[in-house]
Amino acid sequence: MTKTLVYEDRRVHPWKMIGLLLLGITLALAAAPLPANGQEKALESLRETGKAFASVAKKASPAVVFISVEKSFDAGRILGPATPFDDGFFPHRFGWPLPEQPQGPQQKRRMVQGQGSGFIITPDGYILTNNHVVGEADRVSVKLLDGREFTARTVGTDPPTDVAVIKIDAGNLPVLPLGDSDSLEVGEWVLALGNPFGLSHTLTAGIVSAKGRSHVGITDYEDFIQTDAAINPGNSGGPLIDLAGRVVGINTAMYSRSGGYMGIGFAIPVSLARDIYTRLIDHGEVTRGYLGIMVQDLTPELAKSFKVPGTRGVLVSDVMPDTPAQRAGLKQGDVIVRLNRENTDTVGTFRSRIALMEPGSRADLAVIRDGRERSIPVTVGKMPAPERKASARSRDIDAWGLSVSDLARDQAAHYGYTREKGVIVTAVEPGSPAAQAGIRKGSLIQEVNRSPVKDSREFKEAVEGKKTLLLLVRDAEGARYVTLDLKG
Fold first, then answer.
1. Could you list the residue range(s) of the whole structural domain that residue 1 is in?
2. ∠ CA(456), CA(294), CA(442), 5° rounding?
3. Is 223 a catalytic residue?
4. Is 47 within a domain?
5. Does one domain contain both 480 and 456?
């Protein structure tokens, strides 16, 4: 019979005691100083890492440029505050005038200056940078590592992705090769090169913290690489480089509550930037693909409601009339799980991929509808202008924290629901399930648990006795599915 040791009323099996002793020995050894040969190996490994960084910096720095810009504007122009995502030197594109400049009412025009970064991608002087660095500038100057300075012309800009192309008149310039951001993995070493705070050709190192970051609020099309390599004001437009010396992204913004580095920076994937560059060079503008749908990310609650295994895919919350999506047979409530045989994991990635498709090309969609997968081919259309952003909110009633009423004619005209049916949200209780779901006064609820509701009576009958609701809600920004839960 196995004996048990008793200590302070806690019974410990002998084998467990042995395991604890071994753990203690292991920790003691780990805390002890390394032998001389072990220390040397550790130091040698650090030296090799440093040499790798130095080698990349030496090769890449000549192709990284310092960009200075000037912009004049009316003295009476009101300038807004910076956001947490501004890179600092140009809040809201062109920020504040420099402190030493006069700001009196006698000055009709005022000049502001900004700084940023960029990198040369062709020997004859084409340079990639950010739109928010050069997009509104009256004058753009470029300085190279060797001290040469040039006046640059803006070839083209694309505000929805924050990519811009400028050019200097020179030849035999050093260039940076473009890498493959799609094959980049979380945890890989990356280096950021740029001119933070005007400090020319500064190198910082870090890792890829995440990929496919969207809903950040920086650009219309977001599929950012997130990195902890230090990115500060002035880094915008500079390259994010892998250890092979290839560009994998364009440093674009940092998240900061202090105005300085806080460990979160964002870069535009070079796969997206390369395509934008090509279109700007070839056509002078960016023509985007268009399906005519609004989509949202799939949450576990939504996946369960729509009978989708896992949370991979994007949910179609709205299909616009007379669009490629409607003509192809896509429906509200479809979940798109693959685009051209590649998984669709996030809204940001999906929208970017569709936008980069040529109008007239074919998109093969794998869609889950009513729990069954089907294939739907769509002929991609041309994005109309202006673009409509894909985002929305929603609301509910009584225990759910909202009140609704029948949709009156004047309400329909006021909110733009002239061709829609549903119930209008008249009030939302702060802190309620509806409020937590982001529903607003004036939202239109069109479905409850996949069934249409035409008036407040039908709505109340649909929600009575329910503990969970799946609502289709429409507002000025479009339609969106949301789930509400009563706790307890």
1. 1-31
2. 30
3. no
4. no
5. yes
